[in-house]
């Protein structure tokens, strides 16, 4: 089940150092990904000016998957919550970052930005820690069909559109659909289990960090998802696994891989097939896993 964790970020340096003003001093001239993996970048100062002046229904959203390489000091300013450690809790940690698909992001966005309704990629679970601001979440269990919770064909897939137009169509069926909703505040962590539909709307300027992972709970489903869509990475992963896990899944046949492609990350938006895309907001203004 999804859950909201309180108190797990109390000792994080990020809670003191991650805000608009301090980020501006540290990273004002640095470029961040604002284009949902379409290679669209702004400097942080440019992005802040955009945030303060835009009138977009669903504003651009910083969804930076390479922060650990570009801004390595950030990694020292928070820690993976104890509920998701040690390393054997993340069965993808045996892979190097190079073959491993994007799995962690720093997120920043103004009011109205967010992610459309989606499931995180390859049956991964995710946690999202909010440093600044407030996020509105709505979640549905994995068995609920995408055709029920997604916008209709031709409708926008943004988070703000979902809450404005799709949410009113579903709220009276909340119990029937197993809908869970909440507002996440600073210092709180949302856990999104594998397969859960989720949509996120930023209620004010937010800064958060999110990470996707694979545990014993979702291992077979995650591996088989990789095997179908990213067989090269699945083979690398299989070769890196502890023996106890290798025996639980069948490795891809190397002879079947030669003609397949394997991009580093693929997001399937809320308008796509039901077995989609996070993570950890991971759509709309940003197309990734947010889980927020």
From TrEMBL:
Residues covered by region (Disordered): 247-292
Domain of life: Eukaryota
GO terms under cellular component: cytoplasm; nucleus
JmjC domain span: 60-230
Gene Ontology molecular function: histone H4R3 demethylase activity; metal ion binding; methyltransferase activity; P-TEFb complex binding
UniProt keyword Transmembrane present: no
SMART domains named in the record: JmjC
Entry keyword Transport: no
Main location (coarse class): nucleus
Gene Ontology biological process terms, A to Z: methylation
Residue ranges, compositional bias (Low complexity): 255-272, 279-292
Cofactor names: Fe(2+)
SUPFAM superfamilies on file: Clavaminate synthase-like (SSF51197)
A family per Pfam: JmjC
Keywords from the named record: Chromatin regulator, Dioxygenase, Iron, Metal-binding, Methyltransferase, Nucleus, Oxidoreductase, Transcription, Transcription regulation, Transferase
Family: Belongs to the JMJD6 family.
Name of the protein in question: Bifunctional arginine demethylase and lysyl-hydroxylase psr-1
UniProt organism field: Thecamonas trahens ATCC 50062
Upper lineage: Eukaryota, Apusozoa, Apusomonadida, Apusomonadidae, Thecamonas
């Amino acid at each position: 089940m999804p859950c909201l964790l309180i108190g797990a970020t109390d000792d994080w340096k990020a809670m003191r150092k991650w805000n608009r003003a301090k980020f501006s001093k540290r990273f004002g001239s640095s470029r961040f990904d604002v284009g949902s993996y379409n290679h669209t970048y702004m400097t942080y100062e440019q992005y802040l000016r955009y945030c303060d002046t835009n009138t977009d229904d669903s504003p651009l959203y910083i969804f930076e998957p390479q922060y650990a390489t570009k801004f390595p000091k950030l990694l020292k300013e928070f820690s993976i919550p104890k509920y998701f450690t040690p390393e054997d809790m993340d069965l993808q940690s045996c892979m190097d970052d190079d073959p491993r698909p994007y799995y962690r992001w720093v997120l920043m966005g103004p009011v109205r930005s967010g992610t459309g309704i989606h499931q995180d990629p390859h049956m991964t679970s995710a946690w999202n820690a909010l440093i600044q601001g407030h996020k509105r979440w709505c979640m549905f269990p994995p068995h609920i069909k995408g055709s029920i919770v997604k916008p209709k064909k031709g409708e926008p897939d943004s988070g703000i559109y979902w809450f404005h137009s799709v949410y009113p169509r579903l709220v009276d069926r909340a119990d029937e659909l197993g809908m869970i909703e909440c507002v996440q505040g600073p210092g709180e962590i949302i856990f999104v289990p594998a397969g859960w539909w989720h949509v996120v709307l930023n209620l004010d300027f937010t800064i958060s960090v999110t990470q996707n992972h694979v545990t014993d709970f979702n291992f077979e489903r995650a591996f088989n998802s990789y095997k179908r869509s990213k067989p090269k990475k699945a083979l690398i992963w299989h070769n890196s696994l502890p023996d106890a896990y290798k025996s639980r899944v069948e490795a891809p046949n190397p002879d079947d891989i030669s003609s397949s492609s394997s991009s580093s990350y693929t997001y399937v938006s809320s308008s796509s097939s039901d077995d989609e895309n996070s993570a950890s907001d991971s759509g709309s203004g940003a197309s990734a896993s947010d889980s927020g």
